[in-house]
Amino acid sequence: MSMSPRWASIMWQVRRLWPLLLALTLSVESATAVFSHSTSSSSSSYIGAAVQFTPLPFSRSISPALAASNNVDRFESFIAEAREGRAQVIVFPEGATGMFAAEATGNTRDLMLAYCAHLPDNPPEGEQGAPLCYPSDPAPERTDSQYQVWKAACMAKEYGILLVMNLCEVRECSNGTINEHHSDSKAQSPPCPSDGRFQWNTALVIDASGHMVVKYHKSHLFGGGAVFDQAAAEAVSFMSDFGVRFGIFICFDMMYTEPISQLLQEGVRDILFPSWWVNGVPTTDAVAAQQAFSRLHNVNLIAANTGSWARNAGGGIYSQGRALNTSFVTQGAQSVGVNQLLIATIPILPSGYGIRGERMDDRAKSEMAALEKSAFEFVPCIPSLVNAAIANCTLFTPAILSKLIQRKQRALDDSEKMDMSVTITHGKITCDIAASFLSSVTEESNDEVFAAWAFDGVLHFPDTPDPLPLQVCALHHCESSKSSHHARASDDQPITCLPRYGPYVTRLSSFEIEASGLDRHTLPFPQLMVDDAQIIPDAQDATTFTDTQQLSQTASESDYLARTPFSDQRVVRWATTPSFRHQSLYSALIYGVTGIDESMPRPIIYDGEEAIASGAEITQW
Fold this sequence. Notes:
Blueprint: H1 5-39, E1 45-52, H2 64-73, H3 75-84, E2 89-91, H4 101-104, H5 109-113, H6 147-159, E3 162-172, E4 197-206, E5 212-217, E6 237-239, E7 245-248, H7 260-265, E8 270-275, H8 286-297, E9 300-305, E10 315-319, E11 322-327, E12 340-347, E13 379-385, E14 388-389, E15 393-396, H9 398-404, E16 415-426, E17 429-440, H10 443-446, E18 449-460, E19 468-478, H11 482-490, E20 495-497, E21 507-516, E22 523-530, H12 539-542, E23 543-547, H13 557-561, E24 571-576, E25 585-593, E26 604-606, E27 611-612
Parallel strand pairs: 1-2, 2-3, 7-8, 8-9, 13-20, 18-26
Antiparallel strand pairs: 1-12, 3-4, 4-5, 6-7, 9-10, 10-11, 13-14, 13-15, 15-18, 16-17, 17-21, 18-19, 19-25, 21-24, 22-25, 23-24, 26-27
Helix pairs in contact: 2-6, 3-6
């Protein structure tokens, strides 16, 4: 079919003007992106991304600096995908450069030094930091440890995104002198280490123009004490160019009151959190701790975690306890070497301190038809907390519960509601734990074991400068067989109760955990995980969390932040609501972390393999 002269003329004009039209389109598209980016502070939300990232396997055939360069080069695919999803900020996890190989291959400061880079000082508040991507100068060699900083900054600039990475930072100093680095810091200057340099585990924030925004030094090392210097706890925050003020800290810092309390006091409601978490099942699984932190402090949290394997994995994005996007693969080949981008639209919260939990003027009474403690055939047990012994524990099974209702024989499809209630005391803490279960009494359900326990003490970990004071009330599934249960129970000896991810037969109908005797400084994390160690995204709708030590109508915000006790008897309650749907329980607990207090009970010592319970004896039921 031939084209008319008129249409041929029109098509010729289109072809002639196509380059101009294309350029104009790109120009408008670019201008729209910049406009949207610069005015997003007036929006009610922003888009954030967190990366689960597995560093490349350690190889002795390449230098540590080249290994770091190779890992940072791999950031680009995640950044590109995040920008396709219109993300404005992206967080990479702790150790993503592969620097923790230094701990695994020799654990010396000299080995870690090969991964370290130099960084400028933090700029004054409100001023732009130093440029980290400098295209006019030759790029650093990939065998130079500075390449990782340059490359990350250039990617942030190319894609126009706020980027958070973790790396080892080095700063030389003179022996016997004070470190000049802290001239830009509120923290007291520490003395120079004997080898003439500081090595910090550092979170670096780079803006969309490739400039440094801020850096933060980890203030509570978990391991790493032989290769890193632990910094003083210092609140680091900054205002993004899309109108959100972010605070930042690293991994184990979450378990302490500082610098978190200071950030909250400054009105920070959005937290950037790179981590290489150790899942201390069943009490400190990453996603449960992240969700609990967001709910406890009423904040947004962008949590990036390594994806190396299930013992460390689990990341997500949360808003006031609501899981916006999370991932935690616990079993199978998919749980090893995870590399995954999580992205979500995050509501912008008003500046100000987020009140922990709901107000509780009159504590609600449980409506469960709970059995008396004396009716149970409890067995003493020792649940595992990162292989550490926990004292004052009791163990029960669906078989024991079914015996109480005198229904020993059941058809496979027949189920029965079973209630339990127990009070356990350890140290200063008392735990009142009640639960209602639905279970088909089968061979599988008879093998399922639950543990309820209390702990008030201090954990010490290898190569970790700070002890970890804890107060815990917990109910969780155990990994234990019926045969071993009966064998040990007959000897009236404690059973070591290891965590079990699932699958489960017994289903939880409701639970209620009350913790009294908590220290006034304790921050109680309300945690709930169900079958296969997964969190409930909208847990705040299915559960209620109350604390008598709340900010009252008459108490000042500064008093609350100072943890002033408003009552002699502090009680924290964590329970299901009527909207809770039957779930297979993995763990429900109040996990209380606190500042270091010399009045705490004698410590539980963790020696890396087995723990010694020196703080209390196992309760004999």
